Structures are given as C-alpha cells and as structure tokens.
C-alpha cells in the first residue's frame, strides 16, 4: 500500500487554523481526511460538525472524514489509525494534524522519521503555518513559539489580511520572509485556500526541487566581493533593506544561505554536519540543501529538522549546468560565522 500523506497544521492561537481546517474538511474534493487534534479547545471542530462521544477517540464525520483527539501521544494515535485503515474499519486518504497554538512542530515532524511503524505507513508532506495579520507582529515579538512555527513552515498563510491595511500586511510578509525564505506565502481570508496550496506540497520530499526564493539569493549579491556566500540578510545590512521601519525586529529566528561553486569533500562535510547537529540541533529548525560533492556526478540533496538529518542522491547535474552547492539554514540564533567557516573548510 502506498504511504498515507500527512500534513501538520500549526499557527498561533486565533490565527484561524480551525477555520481553515473546516473549509478543507467540508469542501467537495472527494478526499477523505483524518484529522488529529492535539487538543480540543473552545473553538474545536466538533461544535459544528460532530458530536463527540467521550469514550471514543476516533469520530467519523458525516462526509467520511474522521476526527481524533490525542489522549496519548501522536505515535500511538497514528498507529491506531493505520491499523484501522488496513483492516478496512476506517477509510481515509490523508491525515492532517492540528497542533496547539503553543506547540513546537519539531517533535511532531520528527515522529514521522524516528518511529519505524509510523514511517512504514505515513509520509510527512509538509508543515503549514498560519500567521494572523492583525496580531502577528505582536505574537512574533513576544512569543518564541510563534517565531519557531514560522521557521518550520513549508507554506505560510497570512490570515485575516482584510482586517489590516496593505502596508502592515506587506511589512509582516517582509519580516516573515527574513525568518524563512524557503516558504511561499499566501494571504487568506476566512480559511479560503485552494487545496493545491494545502496538500501534496512535498516539503519533506528530498528529491523535490529545493525551493529557495531566487530573489533572496540575489538580494545581497551586488558587488560586495563575497565570492561564494551570501549575507544572512538579517538587518545588519540596513542599506539594502526596503523597509527601514523594520529594524525594530531583530528576530531570533533567522535564515542564512551558504553557496559555493567548489565541490565539497564528502567525508569532511559529513563530520562537520554531524558535529553542528550535535551542538546546535535543538536550535536548528529546518535546513536543506543541494550539494555538489567531489567525485559524484549527481546532486546530493540533504535536509533536516532539529537533530534529524537525512540525505539522498538527487538527479545528475545537467550538461552545462553550473555545479553550485546551495544550503539554507533556518534556526534560533545560529552562529552564522561558525557554520560559514566550517562549511568553507569542508570544500575540496
């Protein structure tokens, strides 16, 4: 049987996760979706769609979707769902996990890689993060969890954009882009999102093409003599920042990109990455790269979440294609210079 795709839906309290979820569940897309909620809060999904039986962990919705509360950990809930599906007791095509507003999505994502039984049944597709346009700035200022959720995202939805003026939404979008350049952003009202922006995004698919916004890579390339790495684009470089009023936000979640046209020495790189993951893993939210390895005519694709890192052989470098290694790191106060120097020392 093919693996069941799973999506993690995260976002701060009141950002509209439940609204988005209801839209997705009630839309006529013909897919049966199992929803796992980390908590049933006040605005839980069952008020309108289902009546919950307190003894039953898994509730069938009228449209064939199922809903479960997590009374134990995620692992056991996923295992139960997979078993019921195998026996034909439940039918569903995919799983959406809605995390609490205060959750760090990292351990949820790691469950899909750490646990063999889960990995044999499910494939983590992506992490979606909702940011509330009205309160987003304040939440990002005051709550590290909110900043981490942005750092983890494969796709970001800015909700309630109709409640604030365009300039404020633009400023918020710009701020989020600095924190996470990999994730495309969409503005949504009332949870109205096309399904193609929600499912099958392949955020964790190692062979999917590496999405780093090309403008992000170009932005600091104008003749600073930096031959093979970028600035990390945080606000030390005020002179190229279009939004001067942004300098108030020195967020601890930052991203930086490393690039080189020289190939990596595979053994050195492996040792260095293993060492930094050991030391900085808890602060490394998401990292990803396409690497040019000495002695290989194929791209090597690598990515990770916290301490978990994986790599895979990608397609061959095309004829005439410039063999450039590109890596993006998103994390909490990562020492950019340590990474930069260490990676440069791994070049062949």
UniProtKB/TrEMBL annotation:
GO molecular function: hydrolase activity; nucleotide binding
InterPro entries documented for this protein: CobW-likC_sf (IPR036627), CobW-like_C (IPR011629), CobW/HypB/UreG_nucleotide-bd (IPR003495), P-loop_NTPase (IPR027417), Zinc-reg_GTPase_activator (IPR051316)
Superkingdom assignment: Bacteria
Keywords assigned: Chaperone, Hydrolase, Nucleotide-binding
Reactions the enzyme catalyzes: GTP + H2O = GDP + phosphate + H(+)
Compositionally biased spans, kind Basic and acidic residues: 231-247
Keyword Hydrolase: yes
Record CDD domains: CobW-like (cd03112)
GO CC aspect terms: cytoplasm
Region called Disordered, residue ranges: 221-247
Similarity section: Belongs to the SIMIBI class G3E GTPase family. ZNG1 subfamily.
Protein's job: Zinc chaperone that directly transfers zinc cofactor to target proteins, thereby activating them. Zinc is transferred from the CXCC motif in the GTPase domain to the zinc binding site in target proteins in a process requiring GTP hydrolysis.
PANTHER family in the cross-refs: COBW DOMAIN-CONTAINING PROTEIN, COBW-RELATED
UniProt name for this protein: Cobalamin biosynthesis protein CobW
Record lineage: Bacteria, Pseudomonadati, Pseudomonadota, Betaproteobacteria, Burkholderiales
